[in-house]
Amino acid sequence: MSARIISGTETAKQISEELKNEVAELKATRNIVPGLATVIVGCDGPSLTYVGNKVTMCEKLNMRPERHDLPADISEKELLALIACLNADPAVHGLLVQLPLPKHICETRVLMAISPLKDVDGLHPVNVGKVMIGEDGFLPCTPAGIHELLLRAEVAMEGAEVVVVGRSNIVGKPLASLLMQKRPGANATVTICHSQTRDLKQHTLRADVLIAAIGRPRCITADMVREGTVVIDVGTNEVGKTAEGKRILVGDVDFEAVKEKAAVITPVPGGVGPMTIIMLMKNTLKAAKLALGA
Ligand code: L34
User: Fold this and answer.
1) What separation in Å is there between the alpha carbon of 31 and the centre of ligand 1?
2) Average of pLDDT values for 219-230?
3) In a mutational test of the pocket of ligand 1, which residue from 50, 86, 268 has the highest number of ligand atoms less than 8 Å from its CB?
4) What b/e string do you get for 99-110 counting C-beta neighbours within 10 Å, with b at 16 or more?
5) pLDDT of residue 35
6) Which of 267, 293, 294 has its CA nearest to residue 9?
7) 249-271 residue pLDDT tens
8) What DSSP character marks residue 100?
9) Catalytic residue among 119, 121, 208, 254, which?
10) Which residues line the pocket of ligand 1, CB cutoff 6 A?
11) Distance from residue 276's CA to the centre of ligand 1 (Å)
12) What's 103-124 look like in SS3?
């Protein structure tokens, strides 16, 4: 039997309607428009697409995007100076620096320079720590999007065997923390696998929920998936371009083969990607309310 395909695009659309109403209410009652500053260094192709999607979504929800596109050879010092400016600007409620950064810039120093109160990407160590201890803060957008997708798709998570493949700071690690919290859509038994895992397949075959965040095209194959598994594909790997120059994307999961075994699966594109964007909007709205003390 073929899997139920859960659309991130559709789920994000539902959430966007909810957020649009909240943005309108904030404007009507407090005269505040949530502002999101995006910072991108250099012209990494995918980053430009992702940040473009973020800016467009901001506009759709009547929030205020503020885009800063910096040259690849900007110094770390100049970047830190811009971040300090944006931290101090009351019209900027959320602030994100798109990753990856060029090699001459230290990612940790940059992320630590962002005010934790404006850190809508949830990558500052204060917010990373809050996920670990289950305190309210900013959740990183991709893990938050996956959690929201699982909740809305009513996947039974309590006590479930969740296997996360990938240990990045932006997805694998915070997602594992989130899914083991005592809260709805979580409370799972979580295993993290990575490039040094001895027998990956032994782990993936145990999963009730398998989350692939590796960054390699189609590396989760059908033989690694048990019948009835819920499969979440975080990968967005470009495998070529169409004649019109559009990106051809595939996930970390061999979708066509795995969907014949899985109970539920997310597509790429149109799965986790749009959920990442909408969670960023949700965090930005939260940051604007936080700034009001609301
Ligand atoms: N600081 N850096 C920071 N925050 C983030 O949250 C990100 N990420 C990841 C890369 N670096 C980051 C993103 O924004 C990945 N990511 C992201 C965002 C959006 C999409 C994919 C990844 C997305 O919109 N994906 C679409 C397809 C877009 C396309 O045509 O390429 C989808 O349907 O999957």
Assistant:
1) 30
2) 98
3) 50
4) bebeeebeeeeb
5) 98
6) 267
7) 999 999 999 999 999 999 999 99
8) P
9) 121
10) 49-50, 53, 96-99, 121, 141-142, 236, 247, 249, 268-270, 273-274, 276-277
11) 7
12) CCCCHHHHHHHCCCCCCCCCCC
Given the residues 14, 27, 60, 98, the one annotated as active site: 98
d(CA 63, CA 25): 12
Residue whose entry in the numeric block shows the structure tokens 């938050």 = 144
**Would residue 121 show up in a list of annotated catalytic residues for this protein?**
yes
Distance from C-alpha of 227 to C-alpha of 44, rounded to nearest angstrom: 38
What is the predicted pLDDT for the residue at 1?
77
Ligand 1 atom nearest to 51, measured from its CA: 14
**Helix and strand totals (H; E) in the chain:** 10, 11
pLDDT band of 178, cuts 50, 70, 90: very high
Rounded Cα gap, residues 73 and 58, in angstroms:
28
Query: Which two three-digit tokens encode residue 285?
Result: 């709205």
Type of residue found at 57: M
Looking at the predicted structure, is the pLDDT value of residue 294 above 80? no
Of 29, 1, 8, the residue nearest 278 (C-alpha): 8
Verify whether residue 54 is a known catalytic residue. yes
Sequence length of the chain is 294
The residue assigned the tokens 């692939």 is: 212
